[in-house]
Structures are given as structure tokens and as C-alpha cells.
Specification:
255 residues; 10 strands; 24% strand; Endonuclease, Chain A; 3-stranded antiparallel β-sheet; rod-shaped; 7-stranded mixed β-sheet; Arc Repressor Mutant, subunit A; single chain; alpha+beta
């Protein structure tokens, strides 16, 4: 009984330990004989003996047309444990090699990315709903004014008026046709605007930063919109906005 417990401590299962301990008493036996000795059925005893054979703890031989299993030197247990130790060390070394890649993957997947897609003439309404629900206290945006008013003309329920009522601070980078009269657009609460000529910057989209999200809407051909919620991605685009914001300072217009 103590031998079975000690063998289990060395890594053998309960039934493997019982079969090995029983075989150690007789040195050689058939699966049927071991089944009788251990109380384990013959088919299971055979499977266990084959597992022990693969691990080098027993060997087999045909005698009088019957398969016999013979106990190997007990020192094979040490050899088996040494082999397992080396396999574990190899796995540890392998884990160390791929650990930086796993760390990088963990960082990427820990930043949950939300992507929402919109299309059709309700794009403005749906996008405005997203911005409002975010409870953003400031917004940075870049858009083509002529195209924006063409697709989203001013109305009594204009979504831009909702921004005014919420008193959201806004920085607007406005691209417009400098050869035409500047279209009338509502002045939003605490809005700071800078302008860029569309002949040099032919932007045909609207880009809005709010919270840790970016909204990108096409203002050409089919109306489509995309909202991405990923801090790393948004920060990358935000850097480009800041560069454009600073660059727009060099353009002076009289309205």
C-alpha cells in the first residue's frame, strides 16, 4: 500500500501504481494474471501495461504463445523522471522564447476594439446618437464644409444644435472651397475653428474624435460611416489631427 502511494507521488496514476507494484512482486506476468492480482479488468490492465512499456518501466515477451510483461530495473523510474525533467526544462526554455510575443498579444487583446458600421442617409442621426451617448465633454473634428452641408443641410432638428445645447467644447478643422462664399454653418458653443482650402486638401470625409473613439464618415458617393473604439488606434489618428491643426494656423482667411 505504501509502495502504491509512493509510486503515485512519482507521477503514476492509481491504477498504474497498482499494476507496477503487483508486477514488482512477481517480476513477470500476463495481463490476465495481473488483472486477478489487482482487481483491475484484463483489458484495462493491458492498456496500463502498454503505457508502462512506452515509458520504459516494463518490457514484453511472448512465452508459450502468451504475452508476458517483465519488470525493468527500478532505476528506470529515475531515468523516466530525468527525461520528464528535461522535457519540462525544454518547455520552459521554449516559453521564454515566445513570452515577448505572448506579452504583446496580451496587450493588444486587452485593449478591446469596438467597430460599428453605418450606411445610408441616417448616418448623421446614428453618428450623432453615438457621440451623445459617449458623454464626451470635448470633440475634435475635421470635415469638408461644402460636402457636409450638401449631404446634411441645416434643419430645425439639426444634430449640430444638439451639440450646442450640450455645451461641448469643439475644435473644428474646416476644409472649404476658398473660391466660393463660405457657406453658413451654425456656430457651436465654445467652438474654435481653423480653415484649410479644399484645392490643396481635397478632403471628402468627416473625421470626429470623441472620448477614446474616432468616427470616420465618407461624404462622397455612398454615405458610409465607421466608428472605431480603440485607444491606441485613436491616439495614432489624433497625432495626425494635431499636426493638421498646427499647420492650419499658417492659412489666413478673411470672411
Amino acid at each position: 500500500m505504501f509502495l502504491v502511494k509512493n509510486l503515485q507521488d512519482l507521477g503514476l496514476t492509481d491504477k498504474e501504481a497498482k499494476v507496477y507494484a503487483s508486477l514488482s512482486e512477481v517480476k513477470e506476468a500476463t495481463p490476465q494474471q495481473l488483472a486477478v492480482r489487482t482487481g483491475i479488468n484484463r483489458a484495462t490492465s493491458y492498456v496500463i501495461l502498454e503505457n508502462l512499456l512506452k515509458r520504459g518501466l516494463v518490457k514484453s515477451a511472448m512465452k508459450q504463445k502468451k504475452l508476458h510483461y517483465i519488470l525493468e530495473s527500478p532505476a528506470q523510474i529515475i531515468n523516466l523522471l530525468e527525461k520528464q525533467k528535461k522535457e519540462i526544462e525544454d518547455r520552459i526554455n521554449q516559453a521564454k522564447v515566445i513570452l515577448p510575443e505572448l506579452d504583446m498579444l496580451e496587450k493588444l487583446t486587452s485593449q478591446r476594439t469596438d467597430v460599428k458600421f453605418f450606411e445610408g442617409h441616417k448616418v448623421a442621426q446614428l453618428m450623432q446618437k453615438e457621440i451623445a451617448s459617449s458623454k464626451a465633454d470635448s470633440i475634435d473634428e475635421m470635415y469638408n464644409l461644402n460636402m457636409a452641408l450638401q449631404y446634411f443641410p441645416l434643419a430645425h432638428n439639426d444634430h449640430r444644435k444638439a451639440l450646442y445645447r450640450k455645451k461641448i467644447k469643439i475644435r473644428s478643422l474646416v476644409v472649404f472651397d476658398s473660391k466660393e462664399v463660405l457657406p453658413r454653418a451654425p456656430q457651436l458653443w465654445h467652438e474654435e475653428k481653423r480653415y484649410l482650402p479644399s484645392d490643396k486638401f481635397p478632403l471628402s470625409a468627416e473625421i470626429v474624435f470623441f472620448k477614446d473613439k474616432i468616427l470616420i464618415a465618407s461624404l462622397k458617393d455612398d454615405l458610409i460611416g465607421l466608428i472605431i473604439g480603440n485607444k491606441a488606434i485613436v491616439n495614432g489618428f489624433k497625432i495626425m489631427f494635431e499636426l493638421a491643426w498646427q499647420g492650419a494656423e499658417s492659412y489666413k482667411f478673411e470672411f
